[in-house]
């Protein structure tokens, strides 16, 4: 389910137009987690919008916010970083949030502590913001891991 609030703000600012849009998605999943992704697009001038993605993951049993360290064992960070970096280095196709193929920086190195964590279907999803691993033109790279594949890393 995706909701969009269009043109949240528009005003004249030093001869330019300033705009802001926000959208949010409730990511349906099989984890017992309410996973709400919030995308904010802000234009303050220049070549393009500045985009930011956040995700709020709530445990439906005890109504607590889930952080990476509450979900995964300590060695999970090293495992996910290694898997994502292997995917990048192998040249495998990786897609962004809009379904387009991502082209990575030559020296791209993933750190899931900088990624946005969400839950979707049977997958754990790590999304990296623009410029973290790739240029703006490649969008936000998405890496998905099936819960069966990584169940040994859950707390």
Q: Give the tally of β-strands.
A: 7
- Rough shape? globular
- The radius of gyration is 17 Å
Structural class: alpha+beta
H/E element order: EEEEHHEEEH
Report, as a whole number of angstroms, the end-to-end distance.
29 Å
Q: How large is the share of residues in beta strands? A: 35-45%
Q: Kindly report the spatial arrangement of strands forming the biggest sheet.
A: 1-2-3-4
Q: Runs with pLDDT <50, length 5+?
A: none
Tell me, rounded to a whole number, the average pLDDT.
91
Instruction: Report helical residue fraction.
Output: 10-25%
Our count of helices gives: 3
Largest sheet composition: 4 strands, antiparallel
Can you put this structure into words, describing what you see?
The protein is built from 3 helices and 7 strands. The protein has a 4-stranded antiparallel beta sheet with strand order 1-2-3-4, with no helix packed on it. A 3-stranded antiparallel beta sheet has the order 5-6-7. A hairpin with a 2-residue loop joins strand 5 and strand 6. The mean pLDDT is 91.
Summary tags:
four-stranded antiparallel β-sheet, 3 helices, 39% strand, 15% helix, alpha+beta
């Amino acid at each position: 389910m995706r909701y969009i609030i269009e043109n949240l703000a528009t005003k004249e600012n030093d001869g330019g137009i300033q705009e802001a849009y926000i959208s949010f998605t409730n990511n349906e999943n099989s984890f017992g987690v309410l996973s709400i992704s919030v995308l904010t697009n802000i234009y303050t001038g220049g070549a393009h919008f500045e985009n930011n993605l956040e995700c709020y993951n709530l445990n439906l049993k005890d109504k607590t916010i889930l952080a990476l360290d509450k979900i995964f064992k300590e060695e999970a960070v090293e495992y996910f970083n290694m898997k994502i970096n292997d995917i990048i280095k192998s040249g495998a196709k990786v897609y962004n949030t809009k379904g387009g193929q991502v082209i990575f920086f030559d020296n791209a190195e993933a750190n899931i502590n900088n990624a946005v964590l969400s839950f979707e279907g049977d997958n754990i999803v790590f999304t990296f913001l623009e410029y973290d691993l790739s240029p703006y033109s490649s969008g936000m790279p998405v890496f998905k891991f099936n819960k069966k594949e990584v169940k040994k890393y859950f707390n």
